[in-house]
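Work Package 4 report. The design task specified in the project plan requires that, given a folded chain encoded as structure tokens, an amino acid be chosen for each position. We show below one input record used in the internal validation round.
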């Protein structure tokens, strides 16, 4: 399967969207995440991303800005072709502050990237956010002036230290 994800930035705030998975879901219930979803047959990555964002959080004005990273995982403990997932995560932007959640999620928050890292427990999503922070370290995304002094390990180069 191929999936896409989105670190969605609320324009001019430096905050990003995190969603809490519904308690009734079989995969990681109640965990905080960013928007992810599977690509449908014959969809481009960008079409699938916009559709997933629209379906999961009701955002229709999504701007896809850049690729954050590509990744590979298995859904569940069994490493098989049926559980294999290849994904691409994008940096996106919206002006839509009020989110309309699907049944997949129970709540949402607009938070700083640092707050998102404290809410999210998934290693893969942490890597997405760390890479987002690294790629945007010189832009206006609501980071503290001491960003370069803090330590995050980027997924691109595990030994590199990045600041919060």
């Amino acid at each position: 399967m191929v999936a896409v994800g989105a670190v969605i930035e609320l324009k001019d705030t430096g905050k990003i969207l995190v969603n809490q998975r519904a308690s009734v879901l079989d995969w990681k219930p109640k965990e905080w995440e960013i928007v992810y979803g599977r690509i449908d047959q014959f969809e481009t990555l960008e079409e699938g991303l916009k559709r997933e964002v629209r379906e999961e959080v009701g955002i229709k004005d999504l701007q896809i800005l850049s690729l954050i990273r590509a990744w590979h995982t298995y859904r569940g403990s069994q490493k098989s072709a049926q559980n294999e997932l290849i994904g691409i995560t994008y940096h996106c932007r919206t002006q839509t502050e009020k989110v309309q959640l699907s049944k997949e999620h129970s709540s949402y928050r607009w938070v700083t990237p640092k707050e998102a890292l404290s809410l999210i427990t998934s290693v893969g999503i942490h890597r997405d956010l760390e890479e987002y922070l690294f790629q945007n370290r010189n832009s206006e995304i609501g980071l503290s002036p001491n960003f370069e002094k803090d330590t995050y390990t980027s997924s691109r180069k595990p030994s590199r230290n990045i600041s919060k």
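Confidence is low (pLDDT under 50) at residues 140-164. Validation will be extended to a larger panel in the next phase.
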